[in-house]
């Protein structure tokens, strides 16, 4: 038991560490482009980067998440077979995304066109590398996922520094350096492990996981759509200052989201392994995780609530005066997310994709309504109190659905044995 706990702690450490390192790298790329190329060019890059995130989440829904769920804790040969199919699917999805980016570049101009052309060239490599991060966590080797991200940064850093030192840094070349280094790292990993993509088995991959992927894609679209609708709604019924204040506090809670994302990368494969031991262990695992995340959110939010005013102004400038009153409701919401996140992980381990999608649709949809109604009644503060309080209440719905599925699996003896693809 002690060895099992130690192994799980090690995997959790690497999961959080890899997510922190990846977030810092992405943050550095964005900051450097903003600093050296100016606000207009950075705005163009931000549009491209946001487009990359859309394709990234779509790829994860179709390739990485099914791999994490059905190829965690399986023999290496089964894992390698699944990784070959998953990596091929990620590359083809990247190629489809590239065609879309090229189509967009044909109807826009300026730096936005430059960004989309460069992104079109590099998108397959970016998605392929991200798939490998999930593949390593599925195999229980989070340290290799971390090493993969370090390799990406090591290849990218000198090229980035050299390009930024030129008299007129090129956004096109910087995007190529960012995506090209990811491509190089992904190729190195695939060759090093001898696990090359099998394009002829993409259809097999899609058929095997057709019970999961449509619901995962639906969840991704729901989360992205709800976030944008909420901000647009605040702007329409309140004003842009309210949107800015709301978004500013959201940014302040970014480090906590890094913890949540790190837990997801480590947590889904770990929950699958725990489920394979017993449903009772899975229930215990998710309850402990919920308690830990809830406490972490409360502590982090409390630190923001009581931060000295001068410190807040250093971070957000004049926006802090509008954002500070929102720290308390956002803390309540963060606790709600922390309590519900393990049920999201647990439902994936139970392969209850439809339940997770339906729950997400209800919670996110009512959250948008609450946000807009709250904004109409009380601006940014009203939006924050309505939405974030609902997130805490919504965690109860997540747990209700999750506990119901746990009970069903306990009654019927769990899931059938897996072969890993």
Number of structural domains: 2
Give the end-to-end Cα distance, rounded to a whole number of Å: 29 Å
Order of helices and strands: HHHHHHHHHHHHHH
The number of strands is 0
Rg result: 22 Å
Mean pLDDT: 88
Q: Which structural category fits the helices and strands?
A: mainly alpha
The proportion of strand residues reads under 5%
Shape: globular
Helix percent band:
over 70%
The biggest beta sheet, please? none
Q: What does this protein structure show overall?
A:
The two termini are 29 Å apart. The chain folds into two domains: 2-208, no CATH class; 213-412, no CATH class. With 421 residues, it is an all-alpha fold. The chain has 14 helices and no strands.
Question: Which terms would index this structure?
Answer:
421 residues, mainly alpha, 87% helix, 0% strand
Short structural description:
The protein has 421 residues and is mainly alpha-helical. The chain contains 14 helices and no strands.
Which SSEs are present, and which pair or pack?
Layout: H1 2-70, H2 76-105, H3 110-138, H4 142-164, H5 171-193, H6 202-208, H7 213-237, H8 240-252, H9 254-277, H10 279-305, H11 309-316, H12 319-323, H13 327-349, H14 353-412
């Amino acid at each position: 038991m002690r060895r099992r706990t130690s192994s799980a702690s090690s995997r959790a450490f690497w999961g959080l560490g890899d997510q922190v390192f990846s977030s810092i790298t992405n943050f550095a790329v964005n900051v450097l482009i903003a600093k050296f190329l100016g606000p207009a060019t950075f705005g163009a890059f931000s549009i491209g980067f946001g487009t990359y995130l859309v394709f990234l989440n779509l790829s994860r829904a179709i390739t990485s998440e099914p791999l994490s769920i059905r190829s965690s804790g399986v023999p290496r040969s089964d894992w390698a077979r699944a990784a070959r199919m998953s990596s091929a699917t990620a590359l083809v999805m990247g190629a489809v995304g590239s065609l879309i980016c090229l189509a967009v570049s044909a109807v826009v101009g300026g730096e936005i066109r430059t960004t989309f052309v460069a992104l079109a060239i590099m998108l397959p490599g970016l998605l392929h590398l991200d798939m490998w991060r999930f593949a390593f966590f599925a195999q229980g080797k989070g340290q290799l996922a971390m090493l993969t991200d370090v390799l990406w940064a090591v290849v990218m850093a000198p090229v980035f520094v050299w390009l930024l030192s030129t008299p007129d840094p090129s956004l096109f070349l910087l995007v190529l350096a960012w995506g090209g280094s990811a491509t190089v790292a992904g190729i190195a990993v695939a060759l090093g492990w001898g696990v090359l993509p099998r394009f002829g088995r993409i259809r097999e991959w899609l058929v095997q996981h057709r019970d999961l992927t449509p619901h995962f894609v639906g969840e991704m679209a729901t989360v992205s759509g709800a976030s944008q609708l909420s901000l647009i709604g605040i702007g329409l019924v309140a004003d842009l200052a309210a949107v800015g204040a709301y978004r500013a506090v959201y940014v302040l809670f970014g480090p906590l989201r890094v913890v949540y994302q790190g837990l997801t990368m480590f947590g889904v494969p770990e929950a699958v392994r725990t489920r394979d031991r017993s449903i009772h262990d899975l229930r215990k695992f998710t309850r402990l995780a919920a308690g830990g995340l809830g406490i972490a959110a409360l502590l982090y939010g409390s630190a923001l609530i009581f931060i000295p005013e001068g410190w807040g102004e250093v971070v957000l400038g004049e926006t802090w005066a509008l954002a500070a009153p929102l720290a308390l409701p956002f803390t309540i919401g963060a606790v709600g997310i922390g309590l519900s996140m393990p049920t999201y992980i647990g439902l994936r381990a139970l392969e209850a994709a439809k339940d997770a999608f339906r729950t997400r649709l209800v919670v996110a949809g009512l959250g948008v309504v609450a946000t807009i109604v709250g904004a109409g009644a009380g601006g940014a503060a009203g939006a924050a109190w309505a939405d974030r309080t609902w997130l805490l209440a919504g965690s109860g719905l997540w747990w209700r659905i999750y506990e119901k599925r746990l009970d069903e699996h306990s009654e019927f003896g769990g899931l059938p044995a897996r072969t890993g693809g």
